[in-house]
């Protein structure tokens, strides 16, 4: 039980010193004693026992009723001792879990890493930050030989480990698609079948897939119930919602996804995000989508990557540096 | 940050009225699921959920309603949502669930609850 | 085995009787006050489990006297519903008492040896030993 037998003699001497002089030094040493006891996993009932033994050593003629009362005290401490040991065991277990989770989080980072492609005349920025250690958001870039860029962004319901597990499944399924130019609607339909077959009924995933064609500067996209992104029109200096209808993944096996097209002019931007951005709640106030546009507008002179970072910092500060949900934002800007 | 769930058996035997008051999030969703899903497991019943007093719902809440919807298909029951607030309705709308769920926003249709 | 004596548990009051007998035997064997208190607490847990989950059962005591060591063996037997998932019951923090250090993990800590056999629908037998040091 205890790794160190309590030293009854030194406790007795300390007690004796205090009873005689009532000095602060003895009390200070008592404090040291209790800290040491904690370090050596000695439970409170053992301290009471040492106290009783010391007292009986010092006063052998202690009245029987006081002796009985001390045993009574000891009896009431036994359960505290048990609770203390349980606490110790749980604390060890918690540390173990924590280190397991951080190993898993590292694995996930490696797993979900995607390289931001360098495409001529296109400025790309991306940021993704988990609320807890593990991320339930996902984004991925796919580039093909014809100069098209595929962008996937997805959000699993919930956060933490269960969401992260589901996310890994999304990642592997996405990789099973051929790396050549794929229609967004077709990709979402394929992903929908995967999610529907493999997750719990109350779990679902929202996903947006966009395909940017570098030759004609058309942005083709479909959405599976994903938080609408923004389209920034440089000529008008205005933000618009990227509206797209479509059911979340994992609810109905037979759903089809409509595909939309947006012509992208020089200086225009496509901004994709997850609801960790829009569902951000500060005290009792919700972040309105207009506020996100204002923040974006404020930083639009920066590069796409710097913009995502500045927006992230803004929301991080707003939420007092404690994200409530995973946060992901992707910005794509046509330069020329 | 709490959720109150009131279940009333209507004068019509086949209707289960559920009034929800408060917030639906990761903490209150399990309790909601325990109440709602079993109600949908009875063939032929109509579960009517009054949403007007829900001031906040996150995606975990949607997850509960999706599993309830799947359960109605399995058990031959039905599910109707009454009068969600704008912010909550928006969540149903964005996720495409308004297309497959019965959501009533007219107070006069079924009489005020 | 020197002698065995048992207390039948059918009502809450019997828990006190089991504690009393256990403590008396422990004292006779030569356990100090802390160990007496720990043994009594372990008996409480075992007896309360019988009272709450099986309704009826018994707690038996055996003094152990080998060549080089003395000790007390406590056996709790009931014909209750049995324990479905022993691993779960033996996990810290699982106890229905709300993590107050009690439950079977608590008993295991209080004693030196611990063994449990349980058959669903037939009952549970828990066998614990405290050695005198």
UniProtKB/TrEMBL annotation, chain A:
Keywords: Hydrolase. One of its GO terms (molecular function) is phosphatase activity. The keyword Hydrolase applies. Coiled coil: none annotated. Residues 123-334 form the PPM-type phosphatase domain. SUPFAM superfamilies: KaiA/RbsU domain (SSF101215), PP2C-like (SSF81606). Gene3D superfamilies: KaiA/RbsU domain, PPM-type phosphatase domain. Pfam families: RsbU_N (PF08673), SpoIIE (PF07228). PANTHER family: PHOSPHOSERINE PHOSPHATASE RSBU, STAGE II SPORULATION PROTEIN E-RELATED. This is Phosphoserine phosphatase.
TrEMBL record, chain B:
Residues 5-113 form the STAS domain. It comes from the Bacteria. The keyword DNA repair does not apply. The keyword Phosphoprotein applies. GO terms for molecular function: anti-sigma factor antagonist activity. CDD domains: STAS_anti-anti-sigma_factors. PROSITE patterns: STAS (PS50801). Keywords: Phosphoprotein. Belongs to the anti-sigma-factor antagonist family. Positive regulator of sigma-B activity. Non-phosphorylated RsbV binds to RsbW, preventing its association with sigma-B. When phosphorylated, releases RsbW, which is then free to complex with and inactivate sigma-B. NCBIfam families: ant_ant_sig. This is Anti-sigma factor antagonist.
TrEMBL record, chain C:
GO terms for molecular function: protein serine/threonine kinase activity. This is Serine/threonine protein kinase. Pfam families: HATPase_c. Keywords: Kinase, Serine/threonine-protein kinase, Transferase. It comes from Pontibacillus litoralis JSM 072002. It comes from the Bacteria. The keyword NAD does not apply. InterPro entries: HATPase_C_sf, HATPase_dom. The keyword Zinc does not apply. Residues 34-133 form the Histidine kinase/HSP90-like ATPase domain.
